[in-house]
Specification:
- It is built from six helices and three strands; from the N terminus they run H-E-E-H-E-H-H-H-H.
- It is mostly helical.
- Strands 2-1-3 form a three-stranded antiparallel sheet.
- A hairpin with a 5-residue loop joins strand 1 (16-17) and strand 2 (23-24).
- The protein is extended, with a radius of gyration of 20 Å.
- The protein starts with a helix and ends in a 6-residue tail after the last helix.
- 5% of the residues are buried.
Length: 144
């Protein structure tokens, strides 16, 4: 939205609403109001789950209370972050990659465009020192 605002381009209907909760196609007005979740009720429920984890659980302000990201008024938005690390091999009996490949193939066969999917797999590299810290966090406290 910020890119669209800076270019003076309209946004599609259903992306945002103004400060009064009215639909808008003006990116600048949408940034002053709020972004709408994609996916209707299901998308709204996913957004609710993210809000619970990233705001309520972390003690940050809720999205309805945060300052706007689109201007400098009201100071920092004071939003939170929630990070989780999962070892897929532990839970999937080593079948995670195969399951993901099958899931991607079924979505592509149905004509679903996956976000950021270019058909190439890219490894994610984590710095060794950071990985050690993550591993320490996953150990029971009495073994640290």
């Amino acid at each position: 939205m910020i890119l669209r605002r800076d270019r003076g381009e309209a946004i599609p209907a259903g992306w945002a609403q103004d400060r009064n909760g009215q639909p808008t196609t003006d990116a600048a007005i949408g940034l002053e109001g709020s972004l709408l979740p994609a996916g209707g009720r299901k998308g709204a429920n996913v957004a609710l789950l993210v809000e619970v984890l990233a705001a309520a659980l972390t003690g940050s302000v809720l999205s309805t209370e945060a300052s706007a990201f689109g201007n400098d008024e009201g100071g920092r938005p004071h939003v939170g972050q929630f990070l989780i690390a999962i070892d897929p091999g532990h839970f999937s009996a080593g079948r995670f990659s195969e399951a993901i490949d099958n899931l991607v193939a079924s979505h592509e066969a149905a004509g679903v465009r996956l976000p950021g999917h270019s058909g190439r797999k890219q490894a994610v590299f984590v710095d060794a020192d950071l990985w050690k810290k993550v591993r320490l966090l996953s150990e029971p406290e009495d073994t640290r």
